[in-house]
């Protein structure tokens, strides 16, 4: 169930893929702040924790599986996340990583065959599967932690407000609920 990917807080830090829990690891810097380290996995069968990259000769500095750091998601058996270099959506395969969206993104999630993206300027766009050009849904989108049920997208706007967007409408707009 795809919403099993989502954890609250707009930063999905762990997901289940095959028999592994994939998670981000942070370490404390010399200045006392948290600094992203790399992506690890916990094997549910062997109970082993290791770097998600399975190449024993890799330094994990610029490898295919280690550039991810936020909004981890599993979609159609593949791991997605934002990369550390340019905040682009990256899809990780067995031995490589591929940029799925070139532009910097704020947040993203899949639903059905569509990729939904909250852009850095707070627009909500969707990429239909197989398309490279986004379709704008909302010019100004204030939601976080979205989910879609039926034709409606629901999202948290603040600690007290939630919004709903009718995705089937001719001119979708946010409605506070």
Beta-strand residue fraction? over 45%
Number of strands: 16
Instruction: Provide mean pLDDT, rounded.
Output: 80
Main structural class: mainly beta
Order of helices and strands: EEEEEEEEEEEEEEEE
Instruction: State the helicity in percent bands.
Output: under 10%
Tally of helical segments: 0
State the separation between the terminal residues, measured CA to CA: 25 Å
Measured on Cα atoms, how large is the radius of gyration?
17 Å
Q: Judging from the principal axes of the Cα atoms, what is the shape?
A: globular
Described by strand count, sense and barrel closure, the largest sheet is: 4 strands, antiparallel
Would you kindly provide a written description of the structure presented here, covering whatever features stand out?
Helices cover 0% and strands 51% of the residues. It is mainly β and 177 residues long. β3 and β4 form a beta hairpin. It has strands at residues 14-17, 20-28, 34-43, 49-51, 68-75, 78-83, 89-92, 97-101, 105-111, 114-119, 124-128, 135-138, 144-149, 152-156, 162-166, 174-176. The strands form four sheets. The chain has a four-stranded antiparallel beta sheet with strand order 1-2-3-4, with no helix packed on it. Strands 5-6-7-8 form a four-stranded antiparallel beta sheet, with no helix packed on it. It contains no helices and 16 strands. It is globular and about 55 Å long.
């Amino acid at each position: 169930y795809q919403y099993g990917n989502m954890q609250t807080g707009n930063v999905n830090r762990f997901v289940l893929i095959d028999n592994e829990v994939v998670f981000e690891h942070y370490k404390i810097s010399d200045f006392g702040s948290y600094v992203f380290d790399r992506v690890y996995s916990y094997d549910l069968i062997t109970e082993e924790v290791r770097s998600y990259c399975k190449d024993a000769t890799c330094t994990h500095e610029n490898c295919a599986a280690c550039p991810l750091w936020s909004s981890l998601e599993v979609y159609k058996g593949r791991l997605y996340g934002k990369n550390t270099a340019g905040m682009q959506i990256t899809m990780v395969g067995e031995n490589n990583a591929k940029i799925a969206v070139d532009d910097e993104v704020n947040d993203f999630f899949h639903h059905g065959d569509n990729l939904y993206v909250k852009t850095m300027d707070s627009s909500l766009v969707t990429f239909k599967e197989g398309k490279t050009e986004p379709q704008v849904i909302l010019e100004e989108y204030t939601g976080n932690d979205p989910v879609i049920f039926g034709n409606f997208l629901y999202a948290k706007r603040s600690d007290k407000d939630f919004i709903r967007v009718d995705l089937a409408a001719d001119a979708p707009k946010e409605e506070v609920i």
